[in-house]
Amino acid sequence: MRRVKFILAAGVVAALGNVALADPPKARSPYDGVEIKVLTDRTSDGLMQPLFEMLEQDTGIEVDPVFLDEGLVARLESRPTEADVVITKDAELIELAKRKGLLAKLDSPIIEKTIPAEFRDKDGEYFVDAYRARGIIVSQDRVKPGAVKTYEDLAKPEWKGKVCTRSGKHDYNIAIFDQMMKAWGDDKAKQVIAGIGRNLARAPEGDDREQAKAIMEGVCDVGLLNSYYYPKMFEHRSQIKWGEATRYVFPNQDTDGVFIMRSAVALTKATANRGAARMFAEYMASGQTQRMIVQRTKQYSVLPDVPPHESMVSMGAQQGIKDGRPKINFVSLEGMADKRDEAVKFVEEIKYDNGPG
Ligand SMILES: [Fe+2]
Question: 39 by DSSP, 3-state: which?
Answer without folding.
Answer: strand
